[in-house]
# Entry
Amino acid sequence: MSISETVPAEFVALDERFTGCDGDYVIKRHFSEARKTEGPAYFAGGRYLVFSDIPNDRLLRYDETTGAVGVLRHGSG
# Structure
């Protein structure tokens, strides 16, 4: 599974201390086939992110070098 698209970003400062921060102007969406995700955790040695798709009961892995997202593990263990 590999999806990559650029979407416009709109940031709202909820705390006045952050009004001077512009942030990024675009967000790159790498994956949109999950219902609700949590994470990610980045593993620099392997250059990948691991994040969970809770309703679908699976752990996903985004490979930074290839841009592919795949299922790392089914079931919450």
In short: The chain has a mean pLDDT of 83. The chain is about 0% helix and 45% strand. The CA atoms of residues 61 and 67 lie 10 Å apart.
